[in-house]
Specification:
Helix content: 25-40%
Number of domains: 2
Number of strands: 0
């Protein structure tokens, strides 16, 4: 009896199932392509202050306060930083123990 109902139901829905799959695939493809087309490359204009990065290419956050100047070359070598860079240190909230410039 159960097989009889399955056959009747599949004969009624025979044309609708492939169309549903094709429509869902088309909608998914459209969403992926339209999202990718509207994505901005934040690294192409990262140096500009008007960009969402504020003109900074990298951002780092520490769990403990950094109480020394990261721009001091001797201190940077002692801490293990080998590359040359310029750092801007700021506090996240008022009362944080970061050095302000």
């Amino acid at each position: 009896m159960k097989k009889l109902f399955q056959r009747r139901n599949s004969s009624r829905q025979h044309g609708k199932i492939p169309i549903t799959v094709v429509i869902l695939f088309a909608i998914g493809t459209f969403l992926v392509i339209s999202t990718g087309a509207n994505r901005k490359d934040i690294f192409s204009t990262a140096g500009k202050k008007t960009n969402g990065t504020g003109g900074f290419l990298y951002f780092a956050e520490t769990t403990v306060p950094v109480l020394y100047d990261l721009n001091d070359k001797e201190r940077r070598v002692r801490e293990g930083f080998e590359q040359e860079f310029t750092a801007v240190q700021f506090s996240r909230m008022s009362g944080d123990d970061a050095m302000m410039r």
